[in-house]
Amino acid sequence: MIQHDIKRADQAPQRKRTFRKFTYRGIDLEQLLDLSSEQFMGMVHCRARRRFQRGLKRKPMGLIKKLRAAKKSAPAGEKPETVKTHLRNMIIVPEMIGSVVGVYNGKVFNQVEIKPEMTGHYLGEFSISYKPVRHGRPGIGATSSSKFVPLK
After folding, report:
1. For the segment 129-148, what is each residue's pLDDT rounded down to a tens digit?
2. pTM of model > 0.85
3. How far is CA 109 from CA 77, 89, 102, 130, in A?
4. For residues 48 and 91, is the Cβ–Cβ distance under 8 A?
5. SS (H, E, C) the chain
């Protein structure tokens, strides 16, 4: 009986894992990288479309140029060097995919690796700028019981 179970396990067909192919609004990644800025502008949400129509100013263009240079100088198959920025309101475009950006949150630069799923979002969405509230924990001045919480 034990040998019979082993044969069944050996005979099971080995299926390869298929990964879900990334698409952004029906367009796969390779085609997305080939789009012009006007074609990409037509695919994003209204606020981003308005921002692109009004033109990318000096600072966002400077960030894109630095990201291009970092990608070009990186060896093949390795992550590019981090590019630090304060531009939390920068919309992620397909050209930025694969780059590493240090996004300032008001205190430190959080490293963010740009993935295809982030396309169309803002950089600031991936670098939280506040410390989330922890409810139910005693704090200074909360109640009389909080006086007995050791400070060390």
Report:
1. 999 988 877 666 666 655 56
2. no
3. 24, 15, 5, 13
4. yes
5. CHHHHHHHHHHCCCCCCCCCCCEECCEEHHHHHHCCHHHHHCCCCHHHHHHHHCCCCHHHHHHHHHHHHHHHHCCCCCCCCCEEECCCCCECCHHHCCCEEEEECCCCEEEEECCHHHCCCEHHHHCCCCCCCCCCCCCCCCCHHHHHCCCC
Residue type, 43: M
116 within 8 A of 97, measured Cβ to Cβ: yes
